[in-house]
Amino acid sequence: MSDAAPALELDDIQSGVLRPRPSPYAATYILLRIDDRRDGREFLRRLGGVITAVRPPKPVERDTSVSVALTYEGLKALGVPQTSLDSFTWEFRQGMRARATALGDVGESAPEHWETPFGTNDIHVVLIGLAPDVAKLEAALASGRAAFEDLPGVVPVWRQDCHAPPDHKEPFGFRDGISHPAIEGSGIPGDNPFDPPLKAGELVLGYRDEIGALPPAPVPEILGRNGTYVAFRKLRQKVAEFRRYVRANAADAADEELVAAKMMGRWRSGAPLALCPLHDDPELGADPTRHNAFMFRADDATGYSTPPGSHIRRSNPRDADVAGVVRLHRMVRRGTAYGPLLPEGVLEDDGEDRGLMFAFVGAHLKRQFEFVQSEWINGGEFLGLGDARDPVTGSNEDGDASFSFPRRPLPRKLRNLASFVVTRGGEYAFMPGLSALRWLSELTDEADG
């Protein structure tokens, strides 16, 4: 019985925790501030009929959802009792601004350069809408807006519209949104047949994780169960600078594509170097049954196909021989492009803001998101690469960073890497279960003492 998949309470877990996103889709992130706790509680009460569960109680349009998450400051603004506030993880209570140095948010990415209201105490609620197209998204968001528009104590302070086109290309030109792990008991398949389902407790509080333990959860039990943590990040991509760097380090157009693929670990089509190391294969890249069906160590321990320091091998080493247990650092990553794409071939920045809105979902902020960001993206010791950082998303602020990839007879080395991705803001949030949402909405001022 102990080996049986847990019976996840799918009617209480928000859809955004477990369900993969449709293709294509549009998304919107709305940040709100709670100025009056009673209005805030009423807002959450109304949202109870808007938020989508993994298994909703009534028919809803497929692939359309609204999710909500609350920051530590938001929970305080609602009047959550101090004993409950103190039971949340230390990282969550500190907030992303306080964790900036550990996350590599320095230099141009430092909090003093973030967009307002990021890095302040004014972000209390994160409302996320998702739908196959803009019209359906706006219809879904209309219900979310109706829940607060007549409540003066709930104030929208920021909005970011995002999109994922049919080819799922992000601003650098690579297919994105490929890897989605299977979660035990969810009934939702992953996209790598060689990767066993993760224990539910890696993603959702109240269930056993990969080490057989229950992740630390806030109290009372109704507040923590079926919830999870989310790290939200707005990341601006320096597309023109990335293109110029690749061109300057390549012999010709074909070599440009190879250099870019080695840095990423995939060709632009999404085809992985692990399966086609010598040339792109757009048909493979577009095939969701094949483009993530691979591991590393068995066939490519040295990295002649997929360099050890490439982005996809750093962010998910799979079965690679690295320090630590890879599965303890897995999480769900969801990135959605924002801003207009820079036209093909343009090498000068046009001044437009473009990049990705990221949501990293997991039950363990420190050993999932923070570990991956600090040790795998902005470090290289786990791969025997010294202090080398991710060539695409790493914090290469000093300008003398390098990236090497195995090649016979000698490795090829790229020098003077820059930071091609800049943090424009971010925050930690807690995405409660629907029962917890009701509990929060029913708080009374008497509970404050």
TrEMBL record:
All copies of domain DyP dimeric alpha+beta barrel, residue ranges = 64-142
| Keyword hit for Repeat | no
Phylogenetic classification of the source organism = Bacteria, Pseudomonadati, Pseudomonadota, Alphaproteobacteria, Caulobacterales
Q: Which organism is it from?
A: Brevundimonas lenta
Q: What is this protein called?
A: Dyp-type peroxidase family
* Cofactors demanded by this protein: heme b
Q: Which PROSITE patterns match?
A: DYP_PEROXIDASE
An example GO CC term for this entry is: cytosol
The protein's matches in Pfam families, at most eight in alphabetical order, are given as: DyP_N
Identify the keywords attached in UniProt to this record, alphabetized. Answer: Iron, Metal-binding, Oxidoreductase, Peroxidase
**Recorded GO terms, molecular function?**
heme binding; metal ion binding; peroxidase activity
